[in-house]
Hints:
This protein is mainly alpha-helical. It contains 17 helices and 6 strands. 30% of the residues are buried. About 2% of the residues have low confidence.
Amino acid sequence: xLSDDRLRERIALITRYFWLDxxxxxxxxxxxxxxxKYSSPWExxxxxxxTEIARNIDDDKLIGLCKKYVPKYGLSLGGFHGKYYTxxxxxxxxxxxxxxxxxxxxxxxxxxWSDQSYGTLQALINxxxxxxxxxxLDEIEKVLGYEFTPSYLLPRLRxxxxxxxxxSNKYPEWTMPSEIIPVVEEEIHGFKRxxxxxxxxxSFSESLLKQLREFDSLGNGIVDARRNLNxxxxxxxxxxxxxxxxxxxxxxxxxxxxxEEFNNRILTLALLIDGIEADRISKLVKSGTQGGSVNLxxxxxxxxxxxxxxxxxxxxxxxxxxxxxxYPVHKDDPQYLNALSYFGFTELPxxxxxxxxxxxxxxxETLQSLISSIIRIQ
Length: 378
């Protein structure tokens, strides 16, 4: 028998995955009474339609529907991270619990930003997971007992899949995906607030030292992940995937405080992304592919790694776009703005340090995802 919490999560997934037109097609395909009453999808209620479908299918049918009807939901909520269902931003659905990842990310946020992180997450929960910026400010003050402006913090919660900017450019909102609210609430409930909150103030030297430590830790993580990826790849396919480039990986540890430094850093990261063993990998690909290391890697994964997370390729492609679609590499191109938005940045100029840290985190996640995908191959 389907439990209530599993049903609620299935309804949330279906509601996010499909617009009314597809819900209407699916409901009629399943021959459900609710949909026979209407001649047009626009006469139905989206939540009710999703509920009727969720109650009348099993998980195998749900997976089949997700493959048949390509999800149209926006990518702004980072996929789906539930207790029973997990989906990538491109719609691949797995019957898998991803709450442990969310727990880990909440703990990371609380560790890095302490009371301010607690106040922001609790305020969003109090607002049922969605609030306009100034409404959120008011609620944060109620939670913390003092004023806190979360403009620095909110974009940093995006790579952790905890908070996302939604709505329109004119009327933006901040949203916590409904499926993660229970586990976020559990984690922050156990958080012990500091007796004397810092209110976010740090000396310049403390901030610089913390920044250097974070980039050094990220650089070490990337070096280890690249080495591990080469080991598992060579064991499975007989060749390393990535070319070694010690100078480039060492440069990843350098801080980034302005646009000029970012231009240098993104060139380094793109060099690492492009640096795959192209000649050897090409011999393992059956069909031809148009130029570019990311395109070649994507073709290889499609042919040899059935269960890989397609978000990994999109992360790499969007990172390269940040390098190639703007001065000084090429003339400025609107695709650069799309890539910024993909990584959670909508203001110009972006916070260069925050953007660089986000890209490093996303690159590390991509490497780890590729490792997991290759290890799972039977």
